[in-house]
């Protein structure tokens, strides 16, 4: 699913990622940990094709990111479900329209779009907001819209950057149940999180810890929380 070999990314003279080597197999659940600025978001944006590879090799879902042509990036992204901290939802469109857009661009039949959109909206507890414009929603509700949009396409790989950051504990646990359902059906998930409670929800997940753009051993507090 993902193969990184000595992957590096720089902006100017600053190296945001340095010699990252990582193999992620189909169906794995990966937690990315590390302090703010450690490189988690940069790594996810690179996997999504939003940033170029400066040095090294990177393959995602069969696409060579070092040599990928711009016209092929949309094909890569159709394999992915992505939740970044800037939700990128359309504020003047309804919840339904935002979630449906991911399927509409794939030219799916309207009956299938409607069924899948309503199912994921219901699963994420947004049913009462189905036709509300997104600019009227709270930050936590907008975050769930972004998550619903990423999941409705049944992606092979989900990249989720702090997906529970604006949610309370109860909603966070409910959301993790939804992520785990997708994982049970074979979806590969890479999730960045600062939350120890979130880490505990998937005890068999692999932990990838970043410090200053490099993969390091997870600190003791993470290992002790997970009894590793």
UniProtKB/TrEMBL annotation:
Subcellular location: Cell membrane
GO cellular component, one term: plasma membrane
GO process terms (BP): cell division
Membrane topology: Peripheral membrane protein
Designated name of the protein: Cell division ATP-binding protein FtsE
GO MF annotations, alphabetized: ATP binding; ATP hydrolysis activity; transmembrane transporter activity
Keywords assigned: ATP-binding, Cell cycle, Cell division, Cell membrane, Membrane, Nucleotide-binding, Transport
Domain ABC transporter: residue ranges: 2-226
Purpose of the protein: Part of the ABC transporter FtsEX involved in cellular division. Important for assembly or stability of the septal ring.
A Pfam short name: ABC_tran
Species of origin: Maridesulfovibrio ferrireducens
NCBIfam families: FtsE (TIGR02673)
Gene3D superfamilies per record: P-loop containing nucleotide triphosphate hydrolases
Quaternary state and interactors: Homodimer. Forms a membrane-associated complex with FtsX.
Family, similarity comment: Belongs to the ABC transporter superfamily.
């Amino acid at each position: 699913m993902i193969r990184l070999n000595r992957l590096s990314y720089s902006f100017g003279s600053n190296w945001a990622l340095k010699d990252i080597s990582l193999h992620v197999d189909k169906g794995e659940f990966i937690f990315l940990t590390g302090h703010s600025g450690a490189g988690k978001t940069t790594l996810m944006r690179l996997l999504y094709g939003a940033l170029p590879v400066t040095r090294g090799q990177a393959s995602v879902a069969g696409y060579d990111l070092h040599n990928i042509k711009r016209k092929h990036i949309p094909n890569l992204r159709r394999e992915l479900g992505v939740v970044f901290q800037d939700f990128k939802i359309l504020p003047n469109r309804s919840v339904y329209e935002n979630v449906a857009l991911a399927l509409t661009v794939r030219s799916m039949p309207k009956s299938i779009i409607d069924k899948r959109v309503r199912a994921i909206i219901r699963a994420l507890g947004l049913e009462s907001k189905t036709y509300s414009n997104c600019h009227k929603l709270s930050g936590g509700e907008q975050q769930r819209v972004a998550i619903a949009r990423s999941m409705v396409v049944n992606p092979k790989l989900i990249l989720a950057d702090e997906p529970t950051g604006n949610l309370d504990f109860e909603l966070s646990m409910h959301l993790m149940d939804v992520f785990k359902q997708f994982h049970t059906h074979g979806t590969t998930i890479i999730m960045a999180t600062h939350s120890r409670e979130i880490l505990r929800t998937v005890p068999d997940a692999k932990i990838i810890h970043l410090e200053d753009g490099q993969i390091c051993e997870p600190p003791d507090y993470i290992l002790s929380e997970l009894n590793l």
